Amino acid sequence: MTHDMALDLRATREVELRTATVASREGAQIRLLGGAVAKLGASCLLQPEPGDLVLVAQAAQAFVVSVLQRVPHSTACELGVAGVERLALAAPEIAIHAERRLCLSALLECEVTAAAGVLRLNAQNLAMTVADSIVEVADEVITQAKVITHRAEELLSTLAKRQLWVAEKEMRVDAETIQMG
Length: 181
Hints:
Blueprint: H1 3-11, E1 16-26, E2 29-32, E3 37-40, E4 53-58, E5 62-69
Parallel strand pairs: 3-5
Antiparallel strand pairs: 1-2, 1-4, 2-3, 4-5
């Protein structure tokens, strides 16, 4: 809530509450059926959509403070706070559950950190597409699988002080030229 909004509400001690239906929304400005215009209140996290029944607080200005009922057959909703650059959730535990799909996206950076614990990814399949580079830094990397296939279009290089290749049954090396030593 900006300083100007706070002054507007404090200057008037009487606040009228009424219900209204949303006609349209452009950012933090809500046009109600009948032509009245209201601003989106800072506490209204569920973003109103056309057809929604909302609670309006009317003082010197009108503010939509709550969405009371979603438009019939609405299958999606948006949470947000108008006019803020950052939205943070803080609690000892936060759970987000999606029955079909969870999408986290960002134009510049997306960071997931478990600084003192374990970061787990569990899936039937893991598909990664990276436009430039993958950088892994760790004390130890352990991979366990039935089959591991590495394919490089130009060069596959490994460098170590010591390197062990152990096969219980068979090891094949096939190339036009093999150089050792």
